[in-house]
Every structure is written in structure tokens, then in C-alpha cells.
Amino acid sequence: MLTFQCFYDLLLQARVLKELPLMGYKSMPIPFFLIGGAVGALALAEYKQYKKDTLLNRIDSSMNLGEPELKFSPSLVHSSNKKVVPTQGAIVCCHVYGLVCHVGIWCDDAIIELHGSGLVRVVSTERFLKQRSGETIYVACNNKAIPISCASAAERAKAQVYYYREYELLANNCYRFIWYCLSGQETQISSFTALNEKLANYFQQDIYWDELLVN
Predict the structure, then answer these.
(1) Which of 19, 34, 153, 156 is most buried when burial is the number of CB atoms within 10 A of its CB?
(2) Transmembrane residues, as ranges (predicted)?
(3) Are residues 54 and 124 in the same domain?
(4) What is the pLDDT along the chain (215 residues), one digit of tens a residue?
């Protein structure tokens, strides 16, 4: 059975959500029975084709025209078929209860994260996944499957370890922490999508989330 995150992923990346304005998607929750059936089948078919085309275009960078953007999100239902070793200052993420993505900074073979308690801490890959739904950690990469990273981000993250931040789900979350580590700026970022937009613009590269290769 698909979780909400899986189904949302199908709809979002198949661009089906943009075709549902009259159903009030942006203004209210949509019961699954209203978007099931034919819409679900359409979403799945378009999603598979979209993923296939995205990965083919990844090989041929000349096909990637326009502004840098998120090309391949961390998916519970479709893999990029690439596993990568993260570099110092790389951005990593995992799914949380199938609903959202939690992010951290790769540093010295561990991950620095902002915990929900507000504590900035260093955790192992196993601890990063503990009590979260995902079994996979993903790394933000470019079209050549090279992690996009920033050494200064790792240094800023290390300087924050054991400090407390006033955690708020939307206003002061893990996305804001990651952006601070990268840019040194305190900016409210309320969603994973918004973070990816900033990452693509900051690094001026398309973003692909590939699976982390654990040594």
C-alpha cells in the first residue's frame, strides 16, 4: 500500500497536482477517494515516464535547459540507481514517517543535524534514521552523481554542535539550519521543496537525490 508520501510524490513529480486546481488541492485536503482511480493510474504512468525521461536527460546535460532546479527527489517508490559516497559538507536527507524529509550536513563521516528538541548534534547514519520511517539516506548531487557540497558548511555546522536553537516546525527547522550552514544567513524555509529551490540556485546546478553508499 502506498503511503501518503508515496502518493504525493507520484502526483507532484508527474505534474498531476498542477492539473487539479478545481479540486481545491491548495485550499483543502483532498480525500483519497476523490483522487484515486483514474487519477492515480494517470499519476503512476506519468510518474514512471517522468522519472525515466529525467534519468535519460541526466546523462545528456545538453537536454537540461533553463534555470537549475530539483530534478530527482528522494523517492520511496523509484530509485535513481546510483549510490554515492558523500563529501565533507554534503547535504543529506531521509524520510520521516513517510510524510516529510529531514536534512543534515555530512561532516567527518557522520551527520550534523538539528533535532526536534532544538539541539544541534552529531549522529551516525544509523542514528539519523532511527525512529524515522525511511531506511535510506539520500545525498544531494549534480547530474554527474557528484555530491554538491561546501566545506564551509561543515565548519559552520561543527561550530553549532551542542547549541540549542528555538525549534519551530515551519519557522526554525532543519531546512533553515542547513541554509544557515551553507550561506551564513538565517532565512525561514518552510518546506523541502523551498530548500531545494535555494540549493539549485546557490550551487547553480540541477539537484538529484541519490542514495548514500555506506562504507
Answers:
(1) 153
(2) 28-45
(3) no
(4) 444 444 445 444 444 344 333 333 333 444 544 455 655 565 555 655 555 656 656 866 656 678 999 999 998 777 778 999 999 999 999 999 877 899 999 999 999 999 999 999 999 999 999 988 778 999 999 999 999 999 999 999 999 999 999 999 999 999 999 999 999 999 999 999 999 999 999 999 999 999 999 77
Contact at 8 Å (CB) between 103 and 116? no
If asked whether residues 58 and 29 sit together in one domain, one would say yes
Do the beta carbons of residue 148 and residue 90 sit within 8 Å? yes
- Tell me the residue range of the domain where 165 lies: 70-212
Query: Residues 134, 86: one domain?
Result: yes
Q: Which residues are registered as beta bridge partners of 84?
A: 212
80: phi then psi, degrees, rounded to nearest 5: -80, -5
Rounded to 10 degrees, what is the CA torsion of 61, 62, 64, 66?
140
Rounded to whole angstroms, the Cα distance separating 20 from 165 reads 38
The identity of residue 160, as a single letter, is Q
Q: Give the residue carrying C-alpha cell 523551498.
A: 194
